[in-house]
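In full, the data.
>
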Amino acid sequence: MSQEYTEDKNIRFTKISNRRRIWEALLILIGIGAIFLMISLLSFHPADPSWSQTTWNEPIQNLGGNIGAWLADILFSAFGLLAYAIPIVVVFGCWNALRHQKNREYTDFFSLALRTIGALALVLTSCALADLNFDDIYNFSSGGVIGSLFSKALLPWFNMLGATLALLSVWAIGFTLFTGWSWLTITEKIGAVILGAVAFITNRGQKDIDYDDYEEPADPAQADPEALVDNNTQPEHQLSAQIEPDSDDILFSAPSALELARQQEMAI
């Protein structure tokens, strides 16, 4: 291990400023609250006492207790399915703020305003899109009260498809304002990933085909051309040997009748 690496990894405990102490304490509280909120949303039960339910005869089934049941009911009523994304966004925002706090020397209010506008556009359009295209959850609208208001306001002017396209365009604008990412860069990244996946699958399939086409010969004689020639010529020699008369055969070695008559005349 090099000395440079050990020096870079030598972390020391240093005291932070009072402002950063308060900031980190707030972020920790917000993160824990987001985790509690996610648990309350996942364990929501319609029969629990809440903002929309006042009568019950059974114990509270929500893991967050009475407070968790109320919070989950309010969020589902307001945002619908989008309520599940709220704790995730909060935790991600806290982590991002905590990590980049050291590099921030000043606050860019213009950038903050653009991010705020983009976040509002994302929330409102997402709720409206969920209300138009998804089924209801429990006894709540899939887009909540916010989604119902926006979808009902757009449907008299557009049909279902037109309202969806209009909301998607506003959603794309809000995403750019909130993240600062260009859609050209996003499409290029997506195209590169797709082309890489297609190239990987194609190369993998080509390698499999080449491997299947190559088969080792079962007979060693097939791999030797000279042995193959000998095998092809061997039946001809055997056939000629079978056709050629054998000198030891008695049928071919016995004298014919003409030769016997000549031998008798010569003897007389």
Notes: The radius of gyration is 44 Å. The chain is about 70% helix and 0% strand. Residues 1-6, 243-251 have pLDDT under 50 and may be disordered. The CA atoms of residues 127 and 147 lie 4 Å apart.
